[in-house]
Amino acid sequence: xxxxxxxxxxxxxxxxxxxxxxxxxxxxxxxxxxxxxxxxxxxxxxxxxxxxxxxxxxxxxxxxxxxxxxxxxxxxxxxxxxxxxxxxxxxxxxxxxxxxxxxxxxxxxxxxxxxxxxxxxxxxxxxxxxxxxxxxxxxxxxxxxxxxxxx
Length: 151
Fold this sequence. Notes:
This protein has 151 residues and is mainly α. It has two domains: 2-33 and 54-78; 85-123 and 131-150, no CATH class. Helix content is 55%, strand content 0%. It is built from six helices and no strands. It has helices spanning 2-8, 12-28, 58-78, 85-99, 106-115, 138-150. It is elongated and about 65 Å long.
């Protein structure tokens, strides 16, 4: 949903609306209008012979920054659309709902127990688990943890 919103506001029209609201707010707060920074000459050792980018107007400069920020936000958020993220999200939701008194966590509990059934997250520890008790399957471990958190 957030990616859709950021993609929707990533347009020249939306930037112009944003720019108009910011400049209006700045004038009501008696803040000076923004100005372009001084053009600096690049050192010769970094100069490849190509023209250096120099915005003509302040609005053009901030438009460039506006789009860069939105692109960075969209790319940063989209990395959470990985396959394993859905299961982590369900585990987080289960833990949060277990702690709260009024929340029903049946759906999350069923998903997590079926996802982790038979898996020992600590590894092969012989006949006893990490805490020295007998082996529990994934469902029993999760049930024990949710009961502990609910108390």
